[in-house]
Design a protein that fits this description.
This protein has 305 residues and is of the alpha/beta class. The chain contains 13 helices and eleven strands.
């Protein structure tokens, strides 16, 4: 197993010194934002992690290896390259075996973080149950991964292009805790709230760290969702963004865009229809998640070392 993992010098040093580490995905670089904003955001997010006492580990597949932590040069490669594979659980072995460039999604980043014994992972928003999934069966692999892999995911809730009610039902069935951080309602990515009340919320990262420690000490398999709302100044009006999302979903249906191409298409279309405001919101919420996730990682490490 170790033959497939390659830790950056910074991550190796963090392991040696026993520092808290935060996993970061690479799909947001290759498929979530245009160049050069993607690389700039990735570097800024990594710096936020450092500024809050943890070490960043951006994860990607390069040359048959799972890279745990990327150099500046590797970040540039991912930001500029076209045709980088979007890698979920299904694709992981294939992309490694064929030595392709692969950007990790939430699901595959969780797998790779777990292999590297990193328990805290920061992203923008998780995937979930797509609208109309009762007929299409379009359900993100992120949810199944959360059910079986012991990594906590700090996010701004589930992407608002999804069916949030069914996403929460799925997570409940799989026994995945969804913990609101400074919110009693599930945030919906671009907006701070939704109509869906959460079963538990807290204003303390220390409480969340204690819950995670207890969960895994009880051998309760699977991860947890830490729902952290987008900062208020970047949040979008709910009725405004929902109309745009509905328009984007309708266009995707008309063009028969399904599967792993669906989310990138929708996010690009939403950016276009909002005049770039949705991208600004996306960057802001990722940075906010990095701050909270780093604080959580430090607290969790202090409780478990």
């Amino acid at each position: 197993m170790k033959n497939y993992l390659e830790l950056s010098a910074e991550v190796q040093q963090a392991k040696k010194e026993g520092k808290a580490i935060v996993a970061l995905e690479s799909t947001i670089i290759s498929h979530g934002m245009p160049y050069p904003q993607n690389v700039q955001t990735a570097r800024e997010v990594e710096q936020i992690v450092r500024d809050n006492g943890a070490v960043p580990a951006t994860i990607a597949i390069i040359g048959g290896k799972i890279k745990i932590g990327l150099t500046d040069e590797e970040l540039e490669v991912f930001g500029k390259s076209s045709g980088v594979a979007k890698v979920s659980r299904r694709d992981l072995a294939q992309i490694i075996a064929t030595k392709q460039l692969g950007a990790t999604t939430v699901a595959s980043t969780m797998i790779c973080a777990d292999l590297a014994d990193i328990k805290i992972f920061v992203t923008g928003g998780i995937g979930g149950v797509h609208k109309g999934a009762e007929t299409t069966m379009d359900i993100s692999a992120d949810l199944e991964e959360l059910a079986q892999t012991d990594v906590a995911v700090i996010c701004a809730g589930a992407k608002s292009i999804l069916d949030l009610a069914l996403t929460l039902e799925y997570l409940e069935t799989k026994g995945v805790p969804v913990i609101g951080y400074k919110t009693e309602y599930l945030p919906a990515f671009y907006t701070r709230t939704s109509e869906h009340r959460l079963s538990f919320s807290t204003d303390s990262v220390d409480v969340i760290a204690e819950i995670l420690k207890t969960k895994w000490e009880l051998n309760l398999k699977g991860g947890a969702v830490i729902a952290n709302p987008i900062p208020e100044e970047y949040a979008m009006d709910e009725s405004y963004i929902n109309k745009i999302i509905d328009h984007a979903i309708k266009e995707a249906e008309e063009k028969h865009i399904i599967g792993k191409e669906n989310t990138p298409f929708l996010l690009k279309k939403i950016k276009e229809l909002t005049g770039g405001k949705s991208l600004d919101a996306n960057i802001a919420l990722v940075k906010h998640n990095a701050k909270v996730g780093s604080q959580l990682s430090v607290s969790f490490y202090n409780k478990t070392r």
